Predict the structure.
Amino acid sequence: MADSKREVERKYEATPGTRLPDLTRAAGVSEVVHRGLTELDAVYHDTEDFALAAGSLTLRRRTGGGDAGWHLKFPVSADVRDEIRAPLSEGLPTGLAGLVRSRVRHAGVVPVVRILSSRDVHHLLDDDGGLLAELSVDEVLAERLTEEGRGATAAWTELEVELADDVDPAVLDAVERRLRKAGVQPAASPSKLARALAETAPGKRREAPEPAGPPRTAGDHVLAYVRRQTEALVRLDPAVRRDLPDSVHRMRVATRRLRSAFRTYRPVLDRTVTDPLRDELKWLAGELGAGRDQEVLDARLRSRVAGLPDTLVLGPVRARLERSTVAADAGARRRVVDALDSERYLDLLDALDALIGDPPLRRRAAKDPGHALPRAVLKDYARLAARVGHALDLPPGPERDVAMHEARKATKRVRYAAEAARPALGRPAKKFSRRMKSVQTVLGDHQDSVMAREALRALAVQAHGAGESAFTWGLLYGREEAAARAREGELPEVWARASRPRLRAALEG
Protein backbone atom coordinates (compact mmCIF):
# COMPACT_ATOMS: atom_id res chain seq x y z
CA MET A 1 0.00 0.00 0.00
CA ALA A 2 1.44 3.39 -1.03
CA ASP A 3 1.47 6.29 1.40
CA SER A 4 2.05 10.00 0.90
CA LYS A 5 4.29 12.57 2.53
CA ARG A 6 4.57 16.30 1.92
CA GLU A 7 8.27 17.12 1.58
CA VAL A 8 9.49 20.66 2.15
CA GLU A 9 13.21 21.05 1.57
CA ARG A 10 15.91 23.29 0.13
CA LYS A 11 19.14 22.28 -1.56
CA TYR A 12 22.49 24.08 -1.49
CA GLU A 13 25.81 23.83 -3.26
CA ALA A 14 28.61 22.37 -1.18
CA THR A 15 32.12 20.97 -1.49
CA PRO A 16 33.88 18.25 0.50
CA GLY A 17 35.47 21.06 2.48
CA THR A 18 32.24 22.89 3.31
CA ARG A 19 31.92 23.53 7.03
CA LEU A 20 28.55 24.06 8.63
CA PRO A 21 28.09 27.36 10.47
CA ASP A 22 26.75 27.50 14.01
CA LEU A 23 23.08 26.88 13.25
CA THR A 24 22.01 27.35 16.87
CA ARG A 25 22.19 31.03 15.97
CA ALA A 26 19.27 30.51 13.56
CA ALA A 27 15.98 31.62 15.08
CA GLY A 28 14.21 28.73 16.82
CA VAL A 29 17.14 26.28 16.67
CA SER A 30 18.47 25.38 20.13
CA GLU A 31 20.59 22.34 19.37
CA VAL A 32 22.22 20.55 16.44
CA VAL A 33 22.68 16.81 16.93
CA HIS A 34 24.90 14.72 14.64
CA ARG A 35 23.13 11.49 13.65
CA GLY A 36 25.95 9.87 11.69
CA LEU A 37 26.43 8.55 8.15
CA THR A 38 23.94 6.67 5.99
CA GLU A 39 24.64 5.01 2.63
CA LEU A 40 21.84 5.35 0.06
CA ASP A 41 21.54 3.58 -3.29
CA ALA A 42 18.82 4.89 -5.60
CA VAL A 43 18.00 3.84 -9.17
CA TYR A 44 15.87 6.43 -10.97
CA HIS A 45 13.39 5.27 -13.59
CA ASP A 46 11.90 7.10 -16.56
CA THR A 47 10.87 6.52 -20.15
CA GLU A 48 13.63 6.42 -22.72
CA ASP A 49 12.86 10.01 -23.72
CA PHE A 50 12.52 11.21 -20.09
CA ALA A 51 8.82 11.99 -20.06
CA LEU A 52 8.76 12.12 -16.24
CA ALA A 53 11.76 14.43 -15.99
CA ALA A 54 10.12 16.75 -18.52
CA GLY A 55 7.26 17.15 -16.04
CA SER A 56 9.64 17.53 -13.06
CA LEU A 57 8.58 14.15 -11.64
CA THR A 58 11.07 11.71 -10.14
CA LEU A 59 10.59 7.98 -9.72
CA ARG A 60 13.20 5.96 -7.85
CA ARG A 61 13.81 2.63 -6.17
CA ARG A 62 16.01 3.23 -3.15
CA THR A 63 17.71 1.01 -0.62
CA GLY A 64 19.44 2.11 2.56
CA GLY A 65 18.23 4.58 5.15
CA GLY A 66 14.96 4.46 7.03
CA ASP A 67 12.62 4.78 4.03
CA ALA A 68 13.79 2.12 1.58
CA GLY A 69 11.28 1.47 -1.19
CA TRP A 70 9.81 3.10 -4.27
CA HIS A 71 9.39 6.88 -4.17
CA LEU A 72 7.46 9.02 -6.66
CA LYS A 73 7.71 12.79 -6.25
CA PHE A 74 5.36 15.41 -7.67
CA PRO A 75 6.21 19.13 -7.66
CA VAL A 76 3.75 21.25 -5.67
CA SER A 77 5.51 24.60 -5.47
CA ALA A 78 8.97 25.98 -4.86
CA ASP A 79 10.67 23.83 -2.18
CA VAL A 80 7.57 21.62 -1.85
CA ARG A 81 6.92 18.16 -3.29
CA ASP A 82 4.53 15.35 -2.57
CA GLU A 83 6.33 12.03 -2.15
CA ILE A 84 4.31 8.87 -2.70
CA ARG A 85 5.97 5.79 -1.20
CA ALA A 86 5.50 2.09 -1.82
CA PRO A 87 7.26 -0.93 -0.31
CA LEU A 88 10.43 -2.26 -1.88
CA SER A 89 9.79 -4.66 -4.77
CA GLU A 90 11.54 -5.72 -7.94
CA GLY A 91 9.03 -4.21 -10.34
CA LEU A 92 7.20 -0.89 -10.27
CA PRO A 93 4.20 -1.18 -7.90
CA THR A 94 0.81 -1.02 -9.60
CA GLY A 95 -0.31 2.02 -7.62
CA LEU A 96 2.69 4.09 -8.71
CA ALA A 97 2.37 2.87 -12.31
CA GLY A 98 -1.13 4.35 -12.41
CA LEU A 99 0.11 7.69 -11.10
CA VAL A 100 2.58 8.09 -13.98
CA ARG A 101 0.38 6.64 -16.73
CA SER A 102 -0.76 9.98 -18.18
CA ARG A 103 2.89 10.84 -18.86
CA VAL A 104 4.43 7.53 -19.85
CA ARG A 105 1.35 6.34 -21.83
CA HIS A 106 2.23 3.10 -23.63
CA ALA A 107 5.95 3.33 -22.93
CA GLY A 108 7.55 1.43 -20.09
CA VAL A 109 9.86 2.93 -17.52
CA VAL A 110 13.47 1.81 -17.44
CA PRO A 111 16.45 2.53 -15.17
CA VAL A 112 18.07 5.77 -16.35
CA VAL A 113 20.39 6.90 -13.55
CA ARG A 114 21.89 5.32 -10.45
CA ILE A 115 22.77 7.69 -7.61
CA LEU A 116 24.88 6.66 -4.65
CA SER A 117 24.83 9.06 -1.70
CA SER A 118 26.92 9.04 1.44
CA ARG A 119 24.70 11.11 3.72
CA ASP A 120 25.97 12.86 6.85
CA VAL A 121 22.87 13.67 8.89
CA HIS A 122 22.26 16.39 11.49
CA HIS A 123 19.02 17.10 13.37
CA LEU A 124 18.05 20.67 14.22
CA LEU A 125 16.08 20.71 17.49
CA ASP A 126 13.97 23.28 19.34
CA ASP A 127 14.04 24.17 23.05
CA ASP A 128 11.99 21.07 23.94
CA GLY A 129 14.13 18.69 21.89
CA GLY A 130 11.55 18.50 19.11
CA LEU A 131 12.77 18.00 15.55
CA LEU A 132 12.62 21.14 13.42
CA ALA A 133 14.54 19.99 10.36
CA GLU A 134 17.01 17.45 9.11
CA LEU A 135 20.18 18.77 7.53
CA SER A 136 22.31 16.41 5.46
CA VAL A 137 25.57 16.79 3.60
CA ASP A 138 25.55 14.35 0.67
CA GLU A 139 28.57 13.08 -1.22
CA VAL A 140 26.96 12.06 -4.50
CA LEU A 141 28.06 9.78 -7.34
CA ALA A 142 25.72 9.50 -10.32
CA GLU A 143 26.01 6.98 -13.16
CA ARG A 144 24.03 7.06 -16.42
CA LEU A 145 22.32 3.72 -17.16
CA THR A 146 20.72 4.37 -20.55
CA GLU A 147 22.19 3.03 -23.78
CA GLU A 148 23.07 6.53 -24.89
CA GLY A 149 25.66 7.69 -22.40
CA ARG A 150 25.88 4.40 -20.49
CA GLY A 151 28.58 4.53 -17.84
CA ALA A 152 29.01 8.32 -17.83
CA THR A 153 29.40 9.58 -14.29
CA ALA A 154 29.25 12.80 -12.31
CA ALA A 155 30.18 13.52 -8.70
CA TRP A 156 29.36 16.43 -6.43
CA THR A 157 28.58 17.44 -2.88
CA GLU A 158 25.32 19.06 -1.86
CA LEU A 159 23.55 20.11 1.28
CA GLU A 160 19.85 19.55 1.98
CA VAL A 161 17.63 20.97 4.69
CA GLU A 162 14.27 19.17 5.02
CA LEU A 163 11.57 20.57 7.26
CA ALA A 164 10.05 18.23 9.83
CA ASP A 165 6.30 17.56 9.73
CA ASP A 166 4.03 20.39 10.91
CA VAL A 167 6.92 22.82 11.48
CA ASP A 168 6.71 26.49 10.47
CA PRO A 169 8.55 27.00 7.12
CA ALA A 170 10.10 30.13 8.66
CA VAL A 171 12.66 27.73 10.13
CA LEU A 172 14.02 27.15 6.62
CA ASP A 173 14.38 30.89 6.10
CA ALA A 174 16.27 31.27 9.38
CA VAL A 175 18.63 28.39 8.53
CA GLU A 176 19.17 29.72 5.02
CA ARG A 177 20.22 33.11 6.34
CA ARG A 178 22.94 31.45 8.44
CA LEU A 179 24.07 29.29 5.52
CA ARG A 180 24.24 32.20 3.09
CA LYS A 181 26.19 34.27 5.61
CA ALA A 182 28.70 31.40 5.69
CA GLY A 183 28.97 31.47 1.89
CA VAL A 184 26.72 28.48 1.14
CA GLN A 185 24.58 29.19 -1.94
CA PRO A 186 21.31 27.63 -3.15
CA ALA A 187 21.74 24.76 -5.61
CA ALA A 188 21.28 25.48 -9.30
CA SER A 189 19.48 22.15 -9.89
CA PRO A 190 16.13 21.36 -8.24
CA SER A 191 16.98 17.68 -7.64
CA LYS A 192 19.77 15.14 -7.75
CA LEU A 193 18.23 13.58 -10.84
CA ALA A 194 18.11 16.89 -12.71
CA ARG A 195 21.79 17.49 -11.96
CA ALA A 196 22.74 13.93 -12.88
CA LEU A 197 20.99 14.23 -16.24
CA ALA A 198 22.65 17.57 -16.91
CA GLU A 199 26.15 16.43 -16.00
CA THR A 200 26.18 12.99 -17.60
CA ALA A 201 25.51 12.29 -21.30
CA PRO A 202 22.55 14.49 -22.28
CA GLY A 203 20.59 11.74 -24.05
CA LYS A 204 17.40 12.40 -25.91
CA ARG A 205 14.58 14.21 -24.16
CA ARG A 206 10.89 14.59 -24.73
CA GLU A 207 10.29 18.23 -25.49
CA ALA A 208 6.82 19.72 -25.17
CA PRO A 209 5.81 21.39 -28.43
CA GLU A 210 6.20 25.12 -28.09
CA PRO A 211 5.33 27.95 -30.45
CA ALA A 212 8.21 29.60 -32.28
CA GLY A 213 7.59 32.83 -30.40
CA PRO A 214 4.86 34.88 -28.71
CA PRO A 215 1.41 34.16 -30.17
CA ARG A 216 0.59 36.57 -32.97
CA THR A 217 -2.12 35.05 -35.14
CA ALA A 218 -5.53 33.72 -34.25
CA GLY A 219 -4.16 30.21 -34.71
CA ASP A 220 -1.28 30.88 -32.32
CA HIS A 221 -3.66 31.96 -29.57
CA VAL A 222 -6.06 29.07 -30.00
CA LEU A 223 -3.24 26.52 -30.03
CA ALA A 224 -1.69 28.06 -26.91
CA TYR A 225 -5.01 27.61 -25.12
CA VAL A 226 -5.37 24.02 -26.35
CA ARG A 227 -1.83 23.30 -25.17
CA ARG A 228 -2.53 24.67 -21.67
CA GLN A 229 -5.68 22.60 -21.26
CA THR A 230 -4.00 19.44 -22.54
CA GLU A 231 -1.18 19.96 -20.06
CA ALA A 232 -3.80 20.40 -17.34
CA LEU A 233 -5.35 17.00 -18.18
CA VAL A 234 -1.97 15.28 -17.90
CA ARG A 235 -1.04 17.11 -14.70
CA LEU A 236 -4.37 16.49 -12.97
CA ASP A 237 -4.59 12.78 -13.80
CA PRO A 238 -2.50 11.63 -10.79
CA ALA A 239 -4.32 14.11 -8.52
CA VAL A 240 -7.63 12.52 -9.50
CA ARG A 241 -6.23 9.04 -8.86
CA ARG A 242 -5.07 10.21 -5.42
CA ASP A 243 -8.56 11.63 -4.77
CA LEU A 244 -7.18 15.09 -3.98
CA PRO A 245 -9.74 17.85 -3.25
CA ASP A 246 -11.29 19.50 -6.31
CA SER A 247 -9.10 17.48 -8.71
CA VAL A 248 -12.00 15.80 -10.52
CA HIS A 249 -13.71 19.16 -10.99
CA ARG A 250 -10.60 20.83 -12.40
CA MET A 251 -9.89 17.95 -14.77
CA ARG A 252 -13.47 17.99 -15.99
CA VAL A 253 -13.25 21.74 -16.58
CA ALA A 254 -10.12 21.20 -18.70
CA THR A 255 -12.03 18.75 -20.90
CA ARG A 256 -14.87 21.24 -21.28
CA ARG A 257 -12.50 24.06 -22.16
CA LEU A 258 -10.96 21.93 -24.87
CA ARG A 259 -14.36 20.98 -26.27
CA SER A 260 -15.40 24.61 -26.22
CA ALA A 261 -12.26 25.72 -28.04
CA PHE A 262 -12.71 23.06 -30.72
CA ARG A 263 -16.35 24.04 -31.23
CA THR A 264 -16.02 27.82 -31.13
CA TYR A 265 -12.84 28.04 -33.17
CA ARG A 266 -13.83 25.78 -36.04
CA PRO A 267 -12.86 28.58 -38.46
CA VAL A 268 -9.32 28.24 -37.05
CA LEU A 269 -8.93 24.46 -36.57
CA ASP A 270 -10.23 21.91 -39.08
CA ARG A 271 -13.30 20.27 -37.60
CA THR A 272 -12.67 16.99 -39.43
CA VAL A 273 -9.81 16.58 -36.96
CA THR A 274 -11.29 18.28 -33.90
CA ASP A 275 -14.84 16.86 -34.02
CA PRO A 276 -13.70 13.29 -33.21
CA LEU A 277 -11.64 14.74 -30.37
CA ARG A 278 -14.69 16.62 -29.10
CA ASP A 279 -16.60 13.32 -29.00
CA GLU A 280 -13.84 11.67 -26.97
CA LEU A 281 -13.59 14.64 -24.63
CA LYS A 282 -17.34 14.48 -24.11
CA TRP A 283 -16.95 10.81 -23.12
CA LEU A 284 -14.16 11.67 -20.67
CA ALA A 285 -16.14 14.56 -19.17
CA GLY A 286 -19.06 12.19 -18.68
CA GLU A 287 -16.91 9.66 -16.82
CA LEU A 288 -15.45 12.40 -14.64
CA GLY A 289 -18.89 13.88 -14.17
CA ALA A 290 -20.07 10.77 -12.36
CA GLY A 291 -17.69 11.69 -9.56
CA ARG A 292 -17.98 15.45 -9.69
CA ASP A 293 -21.79 15.57 -9.83
CA GLN A 294 -21.94 13.24 -6.86
CA GLU A 295 -19.50 15.47 -4.91
CA VAL A 296 -21.66 18.53 -5.53
CA LEU A 297 -24.88 16.70 -4.67
CA ASP A 298 -23.44 15.21 -1.47
CA ALA A 299 -22.22 18.59 -0.25
CA ARG A 300 -25.55 20.24 -1.01
CA LEU A 301 -27.69 17.61 0.73
CA ARG A 302 -25.45 17.48 3.79
CA SER A 303 -25.58 21.26 4.04
CA ARG A 304 -29.37 21.29 3.75
CA VAL A 305 -29.80 18.66 6.47
CA ALA A 306 -27.28 20.40 8.75
CA GLY A 307 -29.25 23.63 8.39
CA LEU A 308 -32.44 22.13 9.81
CA PRO A 309 -33.34 22.37 13.50
CA ASP A 310 -33.42 18.99 15.21
CA THR A 311 -37.17 19.24 15.65
CA LEU A 312 -37.59 18.98 11.87
CA VAL A 313 -35.29 16.00 11.42
CA LEU A 314 -37.64 13.05 11.85
CA GLY A 315 -36.22 9.55 11.65
CA PRO A 316 -32.70 8.34 10.75
CA VAL A 317 -32.23 11.07 8.14
CA ARG A 318 -28.50 11.60 8.56
CA ALA A 319 -27.74 7.87 8.65
CA ARG A 320 -29.75 7.22 5.48
CA LEU A 321 -28.08 10.13 3.70
CA GLU A 322 -24.64 8.88 4.74
CA ARG A 323 -25.31 5.36 3.47
CA SER A 324 -26.61 6.69 0.21
CA THR A 325 -23.70 9.04 -0.43
CA VAL A 326 -20.97 6.54 0.56
CA ALA A 327 -22.33 3.95 -1.85
CA ALA A 328 -22.70 6.47 -4.66
CA ASP A 329 -19.24 7.94 -4.05
CA ALA A 330 -17.58 4.52 -4.23
CA GLY A 331 -19.29 3.67 -7.50
CA ALA A 332 -18.44 7.05 -9.03
CA ARG A 333 -14.78 6.77 -8.05
CA ARG A 334 -14.45 3.29 -9.55
CA ARG A 335 -15.91 4.59 -12.78
CA VAL A 336 -13.45 7.50 -12.93
CA VAL A 337 -10.37 5.36 -12.27
CA ASP A 338 -11.52 2.75 -14.81
CA ALA A 339 -11.77 5.49 -17.41
CA LEU A 340 -8.26 6.77 -16.65
CA ASP A 341 -6.91 3.23 -16.89
CA SER A 342 -8.49 2.65 -20.30
CA GLU A 343 -6.77 2.54 -23.68
CA ARG A 344 -9.41 4.94 -24.96
CA TYR A 345 -8.18 7.63 -22.58
CA LEU A 346 -4.53 7.13 -23.48
CA ASP A 347 -5.41 7.30 -27.17
CA LEU A 348 -7.17 10.61 -26.51
CA LEU A 349 -4.06 12.07 -24.86
CA ASP A 350 -1.93 10.89 -27.77
CA ALA A 351 -4.36 12.44 -30.26
CA LEU A 352 -4.26 15.79 -28.44
CA ASP A 353 -0.47 15.74 -28.52
CA ALA A 354 -0.58 14.95 -32.24
CA LEU A 355 -2.90 17.88 -32.89
CA ILE A 356 -0.60 20.27 -31.03
CA GLY A 357 2.46 18.91 -32.83
CA ASP A 358 0.87 19.14 -36.28
CA PRO A 359 -2.09 21.53 -35.97
CA PRO A 360 -4.84 21.29 -38.62
CA LEU A 361 -4.94 25.05 -39.24
CA ARG A 362 -7.49 26.61 -41.58
CA ARG A 363 -7.09 29.78 -43.60
CA ARG A 364 -8.53 32.01 -40.89
CA ALA A 365 -5.85 30.83 -38.44
CA ALA A 366 -3.43 33.27 -40.04
CA LYS A 367 -5.75 36.23 -39.40
CA ASP A 368 -5.32 38.98 -36.83
CA PRO A 369 -6.70 37.64 -33.51
CA GLY A 370 -8.39 40.97 -32.85
CA HIS A 371 -10.75 40.22 -35.71
CA ALA A 372 -11.07 36.42 -35.87
CA LEU A 373 -11.46 35.62 -32.18
CA PRO A 374 -14.25 38.08 -31.23
CA ARG A 375 -16.19 37.02 -34.30
CA ALA A 376 -16.13 33.40 -33.16
CA VAL A 377 -17.00 34.26 -29.53
CA LEU A 378 -19.95 36.43 -30.50
CA LYS A 379 -21.31 33.74 -32.80
CA ASP A 380 -21.52 31.44 -29.78
CA TYR A 381 -22.99 34.30 -27.76
CA ALA A 382 -25.84 34.61 -30.28
CA ARG A 383 -26.71 30.94 -29.73
CA LEU A 384 -26.64 31.52 -25.97
CA ALA A 385 -28.96 34.52 -26.23
CA ALA A 386 -31.50 32.40 -28.12
CA ARG A 387 -31.38 29.68 -25.43
CA VAL A 388 -31.76 32.11 -22.56
CA GLY A 389 -34.66 33.80 -24.31
CA HIS A 390 -36.35 30.44 -24.87
CA ALA A 391 -35.94 29.49 -21.18
CA LEU A 392 -37.36 32.80 -19.99
CA ASP A 393 -40.40 32.41 -22.25
CA LEU A 394 -41.37 29.07 -20.71
CA PRO A 395 -43.56 28.68 -17.61
CA PRO A 396 -42.02 27.08 -14.50
CA GLY A 397 -41.83 23.32 -14.76
CA PRO A 398 -39.78 20.46 -16.18
CA GLU A 399 -39.57 21.97 -19.68
CA ARG A 400 -38.11 25.20 -18.31
CA ASP A 401 -35.69 23.20 -16.14
CA VAL A 402 -34.35 21.48 -19.26
CA ALA A 403 -34.13 24.78 -21.17
CA MET A 404 -32.20 26.43 -18.35
CA HIS A 405 -29.80 23.50 -18.26
CA GLU A 406 -29.18 23.88 -22.00
CA ALA A 407 -28.62 27.61 -21.49
CA ARG A 408 -26.14 26.80 -18.73
CA LYS A 409 -24.08 24.60 -21.05
CA ALA A 410 -24.12 27.30 -23.72
CA THR A 411 -22.99 29.89 -21.15
CA LYS A 412 -19.97 27.77 -20.28
CA ARG A 413 -19.00 27.52 -23.93
CA VAL A 414 -19.14 31.28 -24.38
CA ARG A 415 -17.23 31.89 -21.15
CA TYR A 416 -14.47 29.45 -22.05
CA ALA A 417 -14.24 30.86 -25.56
CA ALA A 418 -13.74 34.34 -24.11
CA GLU A 419 -11.07 32.96 -21.76
CA ALA A 420 -9.17 31.56 -24.72
CA ALA A 421 -9.31 34.97 -26.41
CA ARG A 422 -8.25 36.92 -23.32
CA PRO A 423 -4.46 36.91 -23.98
CA ALA A 424 -5.15 38.52 -27.36
CA LEU A 425 -8.07 40.82 -26.48
CA GLY A 426 -7.19 41.79 -22.91
CA ARG A 427 -9.62 43.50 -20.56
CA PRO A 428 -12.77 43.35 -22.74
CA ALA A 429 -12.49 39.55 -22.96
CA LYS A 430 -11.86 39.33 -19.21
CA LYS A 431 -14.92 41.44 -18.44
CA PHE A 432 -17.06 39.55 -20.92
CA SER A 433 -15.99 36.23 -19.38
CA ARG A 434 -16.75 37.50 -15.88
CA ARG A 435 -20.27 38.51 -16.89
CA MET A 436 -20.86 35.12 -18.48
CA LYS A 437 -19.72 33.49 -15.25
CA SER A 438 -22.39 35.42 -13.33
CA VAL A 439 -25.04 33.96 -15.63
CA GLN A 440 -23.50 30.51 -15.30
CA THR A 441 -23.65 30.76 -11.50
CA VAL A 442 -27.40 31.40 -11.51
CA LEU A 443 -28.09 28.65 -14.04
CA GLY A 444 -25.72 26.25 -12.29
CA ASP A 445 -27.34 26.65 -8.91
CA HIS A 446 -30.71 26.11 -10.55
CA GLN A 447 -29.51 22.85 -12.10
CA ASP A 448 -28.01 21.73 -8.79
CA SER A 449 -31.46 22.23 -7.27
CA VAL A 450 -33.04 20.11 -10.01
CA MET A 451 -30.60 17.27 -9.27
CA ALA A 452 -31.09 17.64 -5.52
CA ARG A 453 -34.84 17.32 -5.89
CA GLU A 454 -34.43 14.08 -7.85
CA ALA A 455 -32.18 12.68 -5.13
CA LEU A 456 -34.50 13.84 -2.32
CA ARG A 457 -37.48 12.18 -3.95
CA ALA A 458 -35.54 8.90 -4.22
CA LEU A 459 -34.51 9.14 -0.57
CA ALA A 460 -38.12 9.83 0.45
CA VAL A 461 -39.29 6.73 -1.43
CA GLN A 462 -36.61 4.63 0.27
CA ALA A 463 -37.50 6.00 3.70
CA HIS A 464 -41.22 5.37 3.16
CA GLY A 465 -40.53 1.81 1.99
CA ALA A 466 -38.49 1.18 5.16
CA GLY A 467 -41.31 2.43 7.39
CA GLU A 468 -39.50 5.68 8.24
CA SER A 469 -40.95 9.17 8.20
CA ALA A 470 -40.52 10.93 4.83
CA PHE A 471 -41.37 14.32 6.34
CA THR A 472 -37.83 15.72 6.35
CA TRP A 473 -37.16 14.66 2.77
CA GLY A 474 -40.38 16.33 1.66
CA LEU A 475 -39.51 19.48 3.57
CA LEU A 476 -36.10 19.67 1.89
CA TYR A 477 -37.69 19.01 -1.50
CA GLY A 478 -39.96 21.99 -1.00
CA ARG A 479 -37.04 24.20 -0.01
CA GLU A 480 -35.10 23.17 -3.10
CA GLU A 481 -38.14 23.94 -5.22
CA ALA A 482 -38.31 27.42 -3.69
CA ALA A 483 -34.58 27.93 -4.27
CA ALA A 484 -35.01 27.04 -7.94
CA ARG A 485 -37.86 29.52 -8.34
CA ALA A 486 -35.71 32.21 -6.72
CA ARG A 487 -32.92 31.55 -9.22
CA GLU A 488 -35.39 31.71 -12.08
CA GLY A 489 -36.50 35.09 -10.77
CA GLU A 490 -32.90 36.36 -10.70
CA LEU A 491 -32.05 35.31 -14.23
CA PRO A 492 -33.65 38.17 -16.22
CA GLU A 493 -31.72 40.86 -14.36
CA VAL A 494 -28.42 38.94 -14.38
CA TRP A 495 -28.80 38.25 -18.09
CA ALA A 496 -29.62 41.88 -18.82
CA ARG A 497 -26.38 43.01 -17.16
CA ALA A 498 -24.34 40.38 -18.96
CA SER A 499 -25.78 41.11 -22.40
CA ARG A 500 -25.37 44.87 -22.58
CA PRO A 501 -24.60 45.98 -26.15
CA ARG A 502 -21.68 48.15 -24.98
CA LEU A 503 -19.95 45.09 -23.51
CA ARG A 504 -20.31 43.15 -26.73
CA ALA A 505 -19.07 46.14 -28.72
CA ALA A 506 -15.97 46.39 -26.54
CA LEU A 507 -15.19 42.74 -27.24
CA GLU A 508 -15.33 43.48 -30.98
CA GLY A 509 -12.92 46.39 -30.45
